[in-house]
Design goal:
3-stranded mixed beta sheet, single chain, 8 helices, 180 residues, mainly alpha, globular
């Protein structure tokens, strides 16, 4: 679910398998310019449930006319790194048993990091069109793997911590190689 408001603070949360993003209009326009998937995905694949169809259409057209830029690639890489740090922090909380949902949060952050990095890598080579999350799933097997494990955790299936740390370490190595 995606909501655009005229004023207030932006936030994103996930409830089970549903992402909810609430953004102020000014921020949506800024995030479109850097092809941030938190706004591009709902605009590309979503439909309006309630609100101004004209405004939704304007934002979607703005997105479809946006070409990947160096600024967008830097933004996506920065967030890939930031979400990777979040994944590591949540994983450490899981190991210390400090937070109940920490395994799910670890995998969510890792999934976001993979998605942002996949987009950054793709846009650095191919600057023709905006990609959706399903495009990322096709491009990167690691995104598919992390999402699969996340689905298992959400569905209540046990997942070994050792396999999660392997996913985190592999991704951190990929990030280091990508930014070197």
């Amino acid at each position: 679910l995606f909501a655009v408001v005229n004023r207030g603070r932006s936030f994103s949360i996930q409830i089970n398998r549903i992402d909810l993003g609430v953004f102020c209009r000014r921020e949506v326009v800024q995030l479109i310019s850097v092809l941030d998937p938190r706004v591009t995905e709902p605009l590309l694949t979503g439909r309006i449930v309630k609100g101004d169809k004209c405004s939704f259409g304007i934002l979607k057209r703005m997105l479809l006319q946006t070409k990947p830029s160096t600024k967008a690639i830097k933004h996506l890489t920065r967030y890939a790194i930031e979400y990777s740090f979040h994944a590591r922090k949540w994983y450490e909380a899981f190991l210390s048993k400090a937070v109940d949902n920490s395994m799910r949060e670890t995998l969510m952050a890792l999934s976001y990091s993979h998605t942002f990095m996949t987009l950054a890598r793709h846009y650095s080579k191919e600057r023709k069109r905006v990609l959706s999350f399903s495009d990322c799933l096709k491009l990167d097997s690691q995104v598919r793997l992390v999402r699969s494990v996340l689905g298992e955790v959400i569905d209540g299936h046990p997942v070994k911590a050792k396999s999660i740390v392997g996913l985190i370490e592999d991704h951190e190595l990929t990030l280091v190689n990508a930014i070197s």
